[in-house]
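> Could you send the TIGR01244 family phosphatase prediction when you get a chance?

Sure thing. Input:
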Amino acid sequence: MDQPINRLDEMFATCGQLHPDDLPHIAQQGYRSIICNRPDHEGGSEQPTSESLRRHAEALGLNFVYLPVIPSTLHQGQAQQLHTLLSTLPPPILAFCRTGNRSTQLYRMTCENEAASSQYDIVIMGGGSAGIGVAASLLRRSPELKIAVVEPSDHHYYQPAWTLVGGGAYEAADTVRPMASVIPEGVTWIQASVSAFAPERQSVLLSNGKQLGYQQLIVCPGLQLAWERIEGLEDTLGQHGVTSNYRYDLAPYTWKLVQSLKRGKALFTQPGMPIKCAGAPQKAMYLSCDHWLRHGVLNEIQVEFNLAGAALFGVPDFVPPLMAYVEKYQASLAFQSNLVAVDGPGKTAWFEVTSSDGSINRHAKPFDLLHVVPPQQAPDVIRRSSLADAAGWLEVDPATLQHPRHSNIFALGDVCGTSNAKTAAAARKQIVVVAENLLALREGLPLPSRYDGYGSCPLTVEKGKVILAEFGYGGKLLPTFPLDPKVARKSAWLLKATVLPRFYWNGMLKGREWLTRCG
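Output:
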C-alpha cells in the first residue's frame, strides 16, 4: 500500500486514494469500515469507482460507505452524515479521498460540532467507587462544575463485602443499589461506555457513537476480570462446585458450597498480580475453614491454596500472623501454581507449576470445591490506547495521579499503573488527591496533594476477627489506629462488617472524606 494512513484517533483514520489491491492490507491492520469521500470520476480513468471498491471491500468482510465530498462545497450537512456513520459503522474506520485532506477536514468539522454540543468541564470514565466518590468530592468543593459520569451499568456494587457474602456474614442484596441512586445530584449520568480516547482534541468517543468534550478527564473504569483465560471456566462457574467471590451472583454460591461440604478436597486459587484486593483469595479460604472448624468437619477436608506467586502476602510484616492461621486450619500452600483449566463435571483443575529450575509442568488436581480468582487486567479500551503504560494500565505519576503526557488527564482506582494495592480504601484516599490536584490545575496553581500509596486489606482470618493490613508504597505500614496492625481483632471485624459499608454508601459516595489525608 502506497498511501500513508493518518490516524486521527484510536477509532478513525484517513488516507489518500485507495485501490482494490490495498484493501487486504487495510483488513489485516484491523480496520472494519471504509468511507469513500472522493466522488466517482473525479480523477479520470485511473480512479477506481466506489462500486468496484465496495465489491472488493465486502468480499473481505469490510463495511463500505460512499459519502462523496467536493472540497469547495464541504458543508454541515455532510458533517452530520459522517456523524451518523460514526455511530453506526463498526470501528475502527478508515476514510479516504484523493489526498486524505477533505476526509480529515470533514472529520474535524464533525468533531467540533459534537464537542460544542456535548462539552463538560470534567468527564469521569467509570461509575464505580472511584468515579462516584471523586464526582461527589469535586462538587463539594466547586458546586458550579459541569460534570459527566460515563458508566454503562444499571447497578452500583459494594464489592468489598462479597468476601463476607461468601462466608455467610453478609447478604448479597445489601451490596447493590441502582446506579441512578448513587449519582451525585448535579452530575450528568451518560449510560454508555468509552470506546476510544482523543486526548489531542480533549474528547472521548462513546459506544453510542457520541463524542464528549472535556477540559479535564478522570479515568477510573476499574479493571477487567479475564475469566476466559482459564480454559473451561466460564462453562462451569456457578455449578459443579466451582465458584468465586469476585462476582455478585456467585458469592452466595460460595457460601452454599461451604455449608454443604463435609469431606473432600477444597482448592482455592490466586492468579498473578496485580489483582483487585490481593488478600481476597485467601480471605475466602480463611472464612471457609473457620466454618468447617466450628462445625467439626475440617479434619475431613483437605484444603489447598494455590498461588501463582512465591509469597503468601506482598507485605512481609503480615506473613507470620497469616501463616499462623494457615497452620491452624491445616491448609497446604502451593506456590507458583497457576490455574489454567477446569473441568467442572469431571471435578478436576489443572495448574501450571513452576519449579525451582524454572521449568513449568501441568498438574491435574481433583476437587469437591473450587474457589477461583480470575486473572485480571486493565480494560481493553485502556490497554489499546495511547494513555496506557507498557503493561497496559493507565499511566500516571504515582504521587499526583496525573498523566505524564496529558496534563489535563488524571486517573484513580484499580486502572492506575501504580504499585499500590487495588482496593476501595486506596480509591478513598486517591479521590482527595485527584480532586485537589485537578482543581488546582484549573486555577493554574501547583498541584498540592501527593498520594503515598495507601491501601487497606482487612484480612478476615476468622468470622469475628480481622487483621487490618494498611500499607503504602514499598510496603510501608500506615495504620490508621494506634494498635499493632498484625494482630487479629474483633474491633477490626466490626469496622469491616458494619462501619465501612455504612460509611461507603453514606460517606464516601457523598463526598465525605473521613481520615483521607495521605502521609
